[in-house]
Amino acid sequence: MNQTTLIKTQKEIGGRVRAVRERHHLSQEEMAEILGIRSRAHYQSIEYGRTQIMEKHLLILNEYFGVSPDFILLGEIRNNEENVYDFISQSPDEKIKTLIEILTYVCGGEHDSHEKILKIYRDNLIKKE
Q: Is the Cβ–Cβ distance between 43 and 33 less than 8 Å?
């Protein structure tokens, strides 16, 4: 991924986190508390795409709101946008590899919770098949 794509991706991820918050009629303070973030300013920087979302926050979003990590990280892929990956047409194994690459970027290379996130994703794939 080039730098422009990474910045765009970070802002899109923040927008999807904001959409979850707004869908549940929560303030930024309330969402920060749910995610275990100590300040509204830090949470706000995630929404604006200035700070990378951490893996533990992806897990909390999944457990608390039922939002899958793949939605937060990838959202809907539209054919009219320039995308690095044609995620929809990839095999399940290719999707896992793509998610690992995205998680490595988004979470700053920390791998502690990758397995949990990938298990959630794989479980969702199996349910759909």
A: no
